[in-house]
Specification:
The complex is a heterodimer. By secondary structure, chain A is mainly beta. Chain A contains no helices and 12 strands. The mean pLDDT of chain B is 91. Classes of the chains: A mainly beta, B mainly beta.
Amino acid sequence: AQSVAQPEDQVNVAEGNPLTVKCTYSVSGNPYLFWYVQYPNRGLQFLLKYITGDNLVKGSYGFEAEFNKSQTSFHLKKPSALVSDSALYFCAVRDSGGYQKVTFGIGTKLQVIP
Amino acid sequence: NAGVMQNPRHLVRRRGQEARLRCSPMKGHSHVYWYRQLPEEGLKFMVYLQKENIIDESGMPKERFSAEFPKEGPSILRIQQVVRGDSAAYFCASSTLTTGDGANVLTFGAGSRLTVL
């Protein structure tokens, strides 16, 4: 079975500081990994994905994530946080094989403090 | 392209009534997913459908819950005899390509918030 762990319920960071939101995963084969963001009373929006290739992937709004196969991690990062980045962030995984189910983590609330 | 459309956005039901949630996927998308969101539980997978087929319903309770995605029309998530514990936000997502570079990027609707009194 595939699963995602987001160990932090909430991450607080000062505006202008770098941020990291952690994610580890478990799949039986090679992973497809995703990050989504949710603003209050809205659906989730896609930020970035890792399918294959470079371990560092860049996405929307200046976010990036690094795939680390040995640590089965896919942490989300941004060099300089903005107050507008405050939201709920979800990591997701899918096995690259034929099975299409996408499993999400529990979500991490990011609070950027002015 | 109107995106993924869910309705109703808000639905109030009394215990024992039926709730029907509708989802129209993005144009050209043939894969539909339903998720339930509760504050302390994150986003829980319920069911994955393709046109006229249920592919994976492992996250859906065996009783009272059903889903369909007919050849024509929206996908429907149906909850019979609702109980207070069914109160949640239900999100639908759709996708097209399932392999390669476009693999499984899901487009989400705005959600349907069910309140059971």
